[in-house]
Specification:
mainly alpha; about 60% helix; about 80 residues
Length: about 80
């Protein structure tokens, strides 16, 4: 794996990058890789942490137990 060192990296940009990485639960190095992959069109696979909460807006008012019971009942029909 290659190493990339960046000289004279602006402090403000590094702080913003670190904040973004924290929000995404990534290291700064991981965040830089993700951003560069997006910029050149190569998407990396999502980690399980990135999938947490995915689709939560669709399930906000749904009772999971009722939903499962309804689904299971539909199998018998």
């Amino acid at each position: 794996m290659a190493t990339l060192n960046i000289k004279n990296f602006p402090e403000e940009l590094h702080a913003a990058l670190a904040d973004r990485a924290d929000r995404q639960r990534r290291s700064v190095a991981q965040e830089v890789i993700v951003l560069l992959e997006e910029a050149i069109g190569q998407q990396s696979p999502h980690s399980i942490l990135e999938l947490a909460g995915l689709g939560a807006e669709y399930w906000k008012d749904v009772d999971a137990g009722d939903h499962v019971a309804t689904e299971r009942a539909s199998w018998d029909s």
